[in-house]
Structures are given as structure tokens and as C-alpha cells.
Design goal:
299 residues, alpha/beta, Rossmann fold, seven-stranded parallel sheet, 9 helices, elongated
């Protein structure tokens, strides 16, 4: 297979000798650069946002796509399906660090870590008597895929009751119960922490709108490690300013987050720059996923 690999896979060169035994490899260091070969020759692509700069229609022989991301939102997925192109994502690669980030963000809010950090810098010995515990809380995981499952395991270890919400209901030991997406509103009503891990699709865009955010119980924490467009930013900001909700936000509708966004300065918000996926185990996991999919492909 004529395989175009982009710099989105940072460790790609380490695998070139092995891949080159079965495939002809073309390398594109930056996905916005000119292609290193005639796109009509390309049968497979390993990359991320390449189709944002190079229309997929130019790759007339394309039959295999491997993404380095978990999300499919940078790919014209309808075209992929219509043309019978096999596509893989980086399922499971980033789930562990994302789950750890979700827990860390909630603990930062629950345990008042921001105030203690400020006090440390000021050399101020000041106790805080109003701190919350995770134990005994109800945590809703909205989107029970690989990331959701890792979140469920970790929150469950803190003695919480974990409820899953997904389009496909199944029995899974890491959840106390799992409900269908039609039960989301009901679950929001009694959940203390809501972790959003759904992919961005036409159905999930704006899933957490003003009405749905209004259903969340007072004092609840919304964690968004999915995509920014899943949550209505203006509606969420309104709830946060009122102090009715808190939030851990790693993704935003517009990235980077505008410098004048009020989210930066709210005490009940943890902001990170779309960074929750980062972990030292990613490179090894990504290499294993890519090679397993490539070796198993029989197209």
C-alpha cells in the first residue's frame, strides 16, 4: 500500500523501517505543507487534520485512514462512509491521562487546592473549613466509551456511585448502572459530578444547552474533556457566574480560549488548554494501536 504518514504521528520515523517492509512510505512533516507525492497514488493515510488542508477528494485511491486522534470531527466522515474507506481512530490511547485529568480537576475544586496554592505563595498559614469529599457522591459519565470507562474506574475508586449514560446500554462492572441517552435529563437532576466524554457529532453538538444545564443540581461540577461545542459556552458561563455550578473545562467552542473570556477568572472553574490527553504513555500506546490496525488490515 502507498502510505502517506504525517507529522501528527510524532514517533513515525521510529516505525518507518518496519512499515517499509510491506508498504511504500511518503512522509509529510506538517499537514499544511505541499504533499510529497501525487495524491492519486495515496492508498492509505496516517495523520490527524490533513483533510483540513488537502481535500479528501484529491486522494482518489484512498482506502485506509488511521487517525492519531480519538475524535473523527476533522474528517469528512460522510465521504469516508460513502466511498467505503476503512477508518481507525486512536481509541484507548489517551483515555488514561484524560481520566486522571478529570479526577484531578474535580479534586482541585472539592479540596480547595487553588486557595492553598495561593496561600503557599503568600506564606500564609490559613486553614479552610469548607471542603467537600468525593466519597458518597454520584458521578455521571456521559459517553461510556474508552475515556468514559477509565473515568468510571477512577471515580469509583473514590467511593462514588457511578452512573453511565450512553446511546448503547450495556452491563459493565465499572458502573453502578447504565442508562440510555434519553435518560440524561433525569440523571443530571441527581448527579454531583457530570463528566462529558461524548464525541462531537450532529447529535451531540449543543447537547448541554441552557435548558439541560438548568437541570443540573445546585453545587454540581461539569467536566468537559470531550469537545467544546458539546456545551453551550454562554449558557454555562451564566450558570458559573451565578455560582450555581462549577466546572472543569479542557475544551472550548473557540480555541484558544479568548483572553477576555470570563472563564479565566472565575474561582469555581478549572481551565486547561486542551491538554488533558497528554501523558508519557501515549507514544507507546499510539504506536501499538497504529501497528495493530495496519497489520490487521486486509483491504
Amino acid at each position: 500500500m502507498n502510505l502517506l504518514i504525517t507529522g501528527a504521528w510524532k514517533e513515525a520515523r521510529d516505525y518507518f523501517p518496519l512499515i517499509g517492509e510491506k508498504h511504500e512510505v511518503f512522509f509529510l512533516p506538517n499537514e499544511t505543507d505541499a504533499l510529497p507525492c501525487d495524491p492519486a497514488r495515496v492508498e492509505g493515510i496516517i495523520g490527524n487534520g490533513i483533510f483540513l488542508s488537502h481535500p479528501i477528494e484529491r486522494f482518489t485511491a484512498l482506502r485506509y485512514i488511521q487517525l492519531t486522534s480519538a475524535g473523527f470531527d476533522r474528517v469528512p466522515i460522510d465521504y469516508v462512509k460513502e466511498n467505503g474507506i476503512t477508518i481507525y481512530n486512536a481509541r484507548g490511547v489517551y483515555s488514561v491521562p484524560m481520566a486522571e485529568s478529570a479526577v484531578a480537576g474535580v479534586l482541585q475544586l472539592y479540596r480547595g487546592l487553588r486557595k492553598f496554592f495561593d496561600n503557599q505563595r503568600a506564606h500564609a498559614w490559613e486553614k479552610e473549613r469548607e471542603l467537600r469529599e468525593l466519597a458518597g457522591r454520584t458521578v455521571a459519565i456521559v459517553g461510556c466509551g474508552s475515556v468514559g470507562n477509565e473515568c468510571a474506574k477512577r471515580f469509583g475508586a473514590f467511593g462514588t456511585e457511578v452512573v453511565g449514560v450512553d446511546i448503547v446500554v450495556r452491563e459493565d462492572a465499572v458502573y453502578r448502572e447504565m442508562r440510555g441517552i434519553n435518560s440524561l435529563d433525569e440523571v443530571l437532576f441527581f448527579s454531583d459530578v457530570v463528566v462529558v466524554t461524548v464525541p462531537l457529532t450532529a447529535e451531540t453538538e449543543g447537547l448541554f444547552d441552557k435548558k439541560r444545564l438548568g437541570l443540573m443540581k445546585t453545587g454540581a461540577v461539569l467536566v468537559n474533556i470531550a469537545r467544546g461545542a458539546v456545551v453551550d459556552t454562554d449558557a454555562l458561563t451564566e450558570e458559573l457566574k451565578k455560582g450555581r455550578l462549577s466546572a472543569v473545562l479542557d475544551v472550548f467552542e473557540n480555541e484558544p480560549l479568548e483572553k477576555d473570556s470570563p472563564l479565566w477568572d472565575l474561582e469555581n472553574v478549572v481551565v486547561t488548554p486542551h491538554n488533558s490527553f497528554v501523558g508519557e504513555g501515549n507514544a507507546k500506546r499510539l504506536g501499538e494501536v497504529i501497528m495493530a490496525n495496519l497489520n490487521g488490515y486486509e483491504g
